[in-house]
Every structure is written in C-alpha cells, then in structure tokens.
Amino acid sequence: MSYDPSNIFAKILRGEIPSKPVYQSEHVLAFPDISPRAPVHILIIPKGAYTSAQDFSEKASPAEKIAFIDAIGAIAAEQGVTETGYRLIANTGTHGHQEVPHFHLHLVGGRALGSMLPQD
Q1: Which residues are catalytic?
Q2: Which residues is 41 bridged to in the sheet?
Q3: Which of 14, 62, 72, 90 has its CA 20 to 30 A from that of 53?
Q4: Exposed/middle/buried for 32, CB within 10 Å: 0-12, 13-18, 19+?
Q5: What proportions of the chain, in percent to the nearest 5, are helix, strand and coil?
Q6: In Å, how far are 29, 31, 56 from 20, measured between CA atoms?
Q7: What is the pLDDT of residues 33-59, one digit of tens each?
C-alpha cells in the first residue's frame, strides 16, 4: 500500500480538517475518534507519512518511535485509564480492516471492553 496524501489524517495534519487535539508533540498528534466505541476512544497518529504499523516499524526514525510510545503512556494517563486498563488497536491491511492508509492507534477504554476477538 502506498501512502495517499489525500487521506483524512494527512488532511488533519495539514490543518485542512479541524481536530481537537488531546496531545501533540513534534512527532505525534492525538485526538478523539469521531465515532467513539468506548467512553475513551483516542486516535494516535505519527506526523510522518507512514501507511501502517509495518511501514512505521521499518521506516520511522528512532526519535519518532520513542515519541510515539511515550505519547501512548501520556495520553492514557491524561485520559484516566491507566488504573483500570485500556486497549491499543492498530488495524493493518485488508485482513486487519485498515480503513485509513495512515498508521494510527486506537486507544480505547473507560469501561470493560470484553474479549479481544469474537470466537469463531
């Protein structure tokens, strides 16, 4: 999958679409999901043009990777879910049901989330 600069997250990063940041650093932007699936549902995106978790893993600089991991902890603490727990979801590729071709994590919590995947 090649990076599409017209994807919604690229537009948010360029300021073409407004967002309500809950966290921002040199390398990371985080904001509430517009269709939350839990009381806390934050999207965490790198500011670099990475299509997926795999792409980010292979191409991001050490500084970008550290900033991204640090952001997760800071956001979870700010959202008040470190005590009760939260889930991180990175959908990658067709089988992972990735809808936006820009790497992002969903940080969800604020209630019991149930089992990770339904059993077939």
Answers
A1: 104
A2: 108
A3: 14
A4: middle
A5: 25, 20, 55
A6: 10, 6, 24
A7: 999 999 999 999 999 999 999 999 999
E-only strand ranges, 1-103: 23-24, 28-32, 40-46, 86-89
pLDDT, the chain, mean: 95
pLDDT digits (tens, 9 = 90+) for 53-74: 999 999 999 999 999 999 999 9
Q: Could you state, in order of their start, the residue ranges of all structural domains in the chain?
A: 8-102
**Residue (of 71, 62, 63) closest to 104 by Cα position:** 71
Q: Is the pLDDT of residue 118 over 80?
A: no
pLDDT on residue 57: 97
CA dist., res. 89 & res. 1, Å (int): 19
CATH number of 8-102: 3.30.428.10
CA distance 90 to 44: 10
Predicted pLDDT at 120: 65
